[in-house]
Amino acid sequence: MATRDSKSPDLERSLALLWSGRAGGRRGPRPKLSVEQIAQAAIRVADADGLEALSMQRIAAELGYSTMSLYNHIPSKDLLLEVAADIGAGQPPEIDGTADFRDAVRQWVAALWAGFQTRPWILRVPIDHSPIGPNQLAWLDRLLRPLLAAGLAGGQARAAAMHLTAVVRGTAQISVDLAKSHQTSAAELGRLLDEVIDERAYPALVAVHAAEAVETAETAEHEGHGLPVELDFGVNRFLDGVEAWVASHGKGRSSGAM
Questions:
Q1: Which residues form the HTH tetR-type domain (predicted)?
Q2: Is the confidence at residue 76, as pLDDT, over 80?
Q3: End of a domain among 88, 112, 131?
Q4: Cα separation of 169 and 121, whole Å?
Q5: Which domain holds residue 241?
Q6: Residues 128 and 149 reside in one and the same domain
Q7: Do residues 141 and 46 both lie within one domain?
Q8: Rg of the chain's alpha carbons, rounded to an integer?
Q9: What is the pLDDT of residues 232-246, one digit of tens each?
Q10: 79 contacts 14 by C-beta, under 8 angstroms
Q11: Measuring CA to CA, how many Å separate 192 from each of 69, 149, 207, 209, 210?
Q12: Residue 97 and residue 92: Cα distance in Å, rounded?
């Protein structure tokens, strides 16, 4: 049977593993080893030592089973990573009681960002298809609610949600990579660059560095819902765009080209 190790993802197998144990009503004794137990062990390894340390052999040793026993439940490491990433993502924040759609979206972004900072290894798990796992779908559903409430139609809300998810994920990936490559803060990096950058050759960059020194201090005093500087401005402009689109095209209009 094909797996994600083949040229195309096996969506049926992914779906079965991601939703393993979710269906009720199954009678008989519970198996000694389950997909969720294996995935939880993988999460513990990744949390402690990173994705590089994750292997079927390491997980088998953690659980006290043979490697072949794991493969009987999850036939490849790629599929294991997919399940572990979905479970590791956890549940999205409860934002249904938030009246303003902008606040709701910002809370969602802040929670997703915090999750990536807590478990950065999730950012390195390959994405072969649209979200189909229970937690992935829960995060998507939770973001769609305020976007629909704001007036976007179905297709528009989905496109906006996927775009915002990609922005947060991409920004988090850059943040994690920079943190790994050096321990220099953004402020310190700016100071070092200011010492070598020629204002005549890079006038815009010099102007931005000078402005950021002031903006960073001001923004830190009133970051809404914990959004970092890297996301705060972009998310607000995204929300401005949603409001402008709804205002100019009418709330509840059927989806079309965006």
A1: 32-92
A2: yes
A3: 88
A4: 12
A5: 91-249
A6: yes
A7: no
A8: 22
A9: 999 999 999 999 999
A10: yes
A11: 54, 46, 15, 11, 13
A12: 14
